């Protein structure tokens, strides 16, 4: 059984009626369904950003939550529509990698191709599978229809998958990459708390941070409040990843940083005094 909770993640934005119509389809099939909007502001067609958001967000939801991700630049093409059952969740969306990081992290139990499911809407648009395929599949799943009745089982190996590249670490240096930039311009890296622990980094240490051809020195601190207004700070963000931000500023804009940039973090010899 599912939790009855359906979580929507799209790049539809808020101007058009697409999200509302998806909810209407879900409610028409299961009036008792509870629907949560994770975000509808994923960067347009950015399936990797969607995958990152799912990865870091899922653990805050109940077991058996149904996640519906519609970031689908290949809609109407040959890509499959998927329903994935993981150890703790159900994931529904296109086979373009957007579901893959969470699926691999949580452990895959079964994958189903729902592209031709009899539980789709009767008339299928080539351009709006969020409404016609993914929403109804989620709704029927939330009503108790078993995954194996909703689609045809396929191999996990046949899915399109992203890999979260692991950082490289030496005694005083960590090499990683920028994987997400939030609305505040904070620069999130793929360097998790585990890697920071491995080099025994302490609050107050000065770090030399090189991102592509940009370089800055900033302290490793618990939060923005430990530096002055307009000053940079390095910290562990709320998802437990190393991040660079500016107190009351936009670090990505100031330093001209985009996702995918390589980052090198080296500890300085001396510690600052907070």
Automatic annotation (TrEMBL):
Gene3D superfamilies: Bacterial fluorinating enzyme like, S-adenosyl-l-methionine hydroxide adenosyltransferase, N-terminal. The keyword S-adenosyl-L-methionine applies. Residues 176-263 form the S-adenosyl-l-methionine hydroxide adenosyltransferase C-terminal domain. Transmembrane segments: none annotated. Residues 6-151 form the S-adenosyl-l-methionine hydroxide adenosyltransferase N-terminal domain. It comes from the Archaea. Keywords: S-adenosyl-L-methionine. PANTHER family: CHLORINASE MJ1651. Belongs to the SAM hydrolase / SAM-dependent halogenase family. This is Uncharacterized protein. The lineage of its organism: Archaea, Thermoproteota, Thermoprotei, Desulfurococcales, Desulfurococcaceae.
């Amino acid at each position: 059984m599912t939790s009855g909770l359906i979580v929507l993640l799209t790049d539809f934005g808020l101007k058009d009626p697409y999200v509302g119509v998806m909810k209407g389809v879900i409610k028409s099939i299961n009036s008792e369904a509870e629907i949560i909007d994770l975000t509808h502001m994923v960067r347009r067609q950015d399936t990797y950003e969607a995958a990152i958001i799912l990865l870091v967000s899922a653990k805050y939801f109940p077991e058996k939550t149904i996640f519906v991700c519609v970031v689908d630049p290949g809609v109407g093409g040959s890509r499959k529509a998927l329903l994935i059952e993981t150890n703790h969740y159900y994931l529904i969306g296109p086979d373009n990698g957007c579901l893959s990081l969470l699926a691999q992290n949580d452990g895959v139990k079964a994958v189903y191709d729902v592209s031709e499911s009899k539980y789709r809407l009767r008339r299928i648009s080539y351009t709006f599978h969020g409404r016609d395929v993914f929403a109804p599949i989620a709704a029927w799943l939330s009503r108790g229809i078993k995954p194996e009745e909703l689609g045809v089982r396929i191999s996990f190996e046949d899915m399109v998958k992203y890999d979260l590249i692991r950082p490289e670490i030496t005694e005083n240096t960590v090499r990683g990459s920028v994987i997400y930039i939030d609305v505040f311009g904070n620069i999130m890296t793929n360097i998790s708390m585990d890697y920071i622990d491995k080099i025994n980094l302490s609050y107050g240490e000065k770090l030399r941070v090189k991102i592509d051809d940009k370089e800055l020195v900033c302290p490793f601190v618990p939060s923005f409040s430990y530096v002055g207004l307009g000053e940079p700070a390095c910290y562990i963000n709320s998802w437990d990843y190393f991040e660079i931000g500016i107190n009351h500023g936009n670090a990505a804009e100031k330093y001209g940083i985009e996702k995918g940039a390589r980052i090198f973090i080296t500890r300085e010899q001396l510690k600052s005094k907070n």
